[in-house]
Amino acid sequence: xxxxxxxxxxxxxxxxxxxxxxxxxxxxxxxxxxxxxxxxxxxxxxxxxxxxxxxxxxxxxxxxxxxxxxxxxxxxxxxxxxxxxxxxxxxxxxxxxxxxxxxxxxxxxxxxxxxxxxxxxxxxxxxxxxxxxxxxxxxxxxxxxxxxxxxxxxxxxxxxxxxxxxxxxxxxxxxxxxxxxxxxxxxxxxxxxxxxxxxxxxxxxxxxxxxxxxxxxxxxxxxxxxxxxxxxxxxxxxxxxxxxxxxxxxxxxxxxxxxxxxxxxxxxxxxxxxxxxxxxxxxxxxxxxxxxxxxxxxxxxxxxxxxxxxxxxxxxxxxxxxxxxxxxxxxxxxxxxxxxxxxxxxxxxxxxxxxxxxxxxxxxxxxxxxxxxxxxxxxxxxxxxxxxxxxxxxxxxxxxxxxxxxxxxxxxxxxxxxxxxxxxxxxxxxxxxxxxxxxxxxxxxxxxxxxxxxxxxxxxxxxxxxxxxxxxxxxxxxxxxxxxxxxxxxxxxxxxxxxxx
Length: 501
Ligand code: NAP
Fold this sequence. Notes:
41% helix, alpha/beta, seven-stranded mixed β-sheet, Aldehyde Dehydrogenase, Chain A, domain 2, disordered N terminus, five-stranded mixed β-sheet
């Protein structure tokens, strides 16, 4: 399997070529940011159409490279196209620029009030690092690339070595779409580069932001490299998460079986290779908890997975599981079926006491794959203590009833500080692409808790607010002019309105 992949790997670019591409992206920025909105929308929608046209090839190639099932890949392509069209819709609606206008008051005393108008402007060329586990939705034409392009920023995309041919195919879709809709050369560049060259891109003076999805080690390395630049830039790294799920007593008393079914399915989905995979369950000691744990173990024993994304990810998973098995404080709760095929993950679940969990920080690390640790707390105080020591997460879940909600108010308040998305009675896997989504969270889940990498708010990672003071109308961006020709919602003197001034 490894040899096959190596034979397929296209040649890597040298730094001198990459530098030229960065310059080209920078040159493209000034014209691209000023392209009329309908033209930029057209570009985005055309990317979606190009992907749709070659979807059969894309599924075949990506299945070979990632081992993900056909149905999943088909769904991911749909999601990617929907995501592209959602951003085109954001541009069409227009108010994403957050136009805020404070009109002048020359009569104000003791000093006249100036006219000040604010909106979001794109920041410049963005470097995007694609993920291994989503060959479409978090890769070449995924949310990072599309939100940057929607904002008006050219993109240089660092290919993940797990699916190079898929990346080339999707990259050609973006290039064709750019040509057909008259975009400037350099608006999008696919970079097939070695790790050190990738770092050089991040530290290049013309790069203005970085978006990344992957491991903690990778994201932090890019963040640290960017921090050493003489001109710092934002790095939006979405990294590991164990997505804790709290299972409250009344829920387990009434719905133990359905809860086990839901969580086993979520934990083993896609061989557990989701950044939102529920890797940690927290429960209170009781006979109902014992019943739930035995159901979970039994249901897990029925599960089989497919081959993992890359040999490296498989190695990391099996080594992690071996380490957990060797720990005296953990006991095996259940294990899925082994496969004759190569690089297939075996699902596994462990149990540990609340006290042992609190003593051992390594149990808070991510095991990327279908593994879970079930922490059994002695009492409610210990359950809340466990919530308190958790690191920042992408998601935190609570499975509960109305009775539980009333009894565990303190827990809910603690959890609000821990994650970008809080889920009640639902699997954390499956991230809706919509306006209200936060796919982010406090460090170490991400390097910037103020941002999201999924949903339309992702666009603000690649913009900055600018105020124009006493600017003549004709010199202002069209969104801020008195006439409001785009007809967008604006905040004028504190009131939301679409009226002209
Ligand atoms: P990864 O190792 O972080 O690699 C992602 C990208 O970052 C690749 O393009 C890689 O380049 C680059 N990279 C990694 N380490 C780097 C470093 N020290 N300096 C510069 N660039 C670096 O992620 P992966 O290959 O997808 O999976 C490995 C692990 O990441 C998994 O076992 C899992 O723990 C985690 N993961 C997390 C998520 C998530 O959504 N949070 C998703 C997938 C994986 P090269 O290929 O050139 O090394």
